[in-house]
Amino acid sequence: MALTKPPLVPASPGQPLTAQAWNEVLSGLSTLFDEVNALGGAALEASVGVEGTPVAGAQVTAEPTGDGRAAMAIPPFGARTTYLFVGLTSGPWRIHVAAEGFAAETRDLTLPHEGPLVVELVRDGVAVPDLFGVGLRGALAELAGAGLQIDLVFDTTGRELPKATIPPEYDASPVLHQSPAAGAVVDPVATRLRLVVASALRREPVVTMPSLIGLTLDEARQVLQRLGLQVGTSTVRDVGSNIFNG
Questions:
Q1: Residues forming beta bridges with residue 88, ordered by sequence position
Q2: Burial letters for 162-185: b for 16+ Cβ neighbours within 10 Å, e otherwise?
């Protein structure tokens, strides 16, 4: 609560102090002590992590179960990986930890408390694996193993690929983008992932063109047909007459 400043009446030398004035001074001092005590001087570090990795972005609050005021921890900053409470009073406290994608946790403790409070979070869903650079066939197998389902698969040209029967030429096409992003904790029942993969390279058959000089049209046609080629429109000219008439 806010401090209330008592009426301060100046006194002259030799003037007696009334009981009312003295009681007002005592009341003000008592309120001041209560407020200062409520501020507290204890500090507490809270280590919040999952599988040994610190979790940033959590909301860590302290609720007094005795005297004191609720407080919010200072989040990690700089090289610090723990959440920090300052100005807590000695006595019993209840620490609440909430982070998106994780189940909420509560810890009871009494201050002063030796060492940091360690809170290990439990995922409230499935973490999306990092699929960047993984071939499409392998990426689909990894998602299936994690219990995650695919919504759509596109290549870089915008072509939608069938999820059930991936064209063989796309088996090794690396994943270039995924949604949700890697590390996101999602509900495996409600969430469907989308992938963008590299376009498959299609190799066209290449034939070395043979020399047809000196062959008749029928002979040239037979040579080309053996190579899988077909003769299109052909024009017959009398080369000799062209030369002499030119």
A1: 42
A2: eeeebeeebeebebbebeeeeebb
> In a 3-state reduction of DSSP, which class is residue 168?
helix
Per-residue pLDDT of the chain (246 residues; tens, 9 = 90+): 455 665 666 777 877 777 877 787 777 767 765 555 555 567 899 999 988 889 988 999 999 987 768 899 999 988 889 999 988 888 899 999 999 888 899 999 998 888 899 999 988 888 899 999 999 999 999 999 999 999 999 999 999 999 888 899 999 999 999 999 998 888 888 889 999 999 987 666 777 888 888 888 888 888 888 888 888 787 777 665 555 555
Place of tokens 């024009």: 235
What are the residue ranges spanned by the domains of the chain?
Answer: 42-120, 126-197
> Which of 65, 218, 206, 53 shows the shortest CA–CA distance to 121?
53
Residues counted in the chain: 246
* Domain range 42-120, CATH class: mainly beta
CATH topology of domain 126-197: Trypsin Inhibitor V; Chain A (3.30.10)
Is there a contact between 197 and 174 (Cβ–Cβ < 8 Å)? yes
Whether 52 contacts 31, CB under 8 Å: no
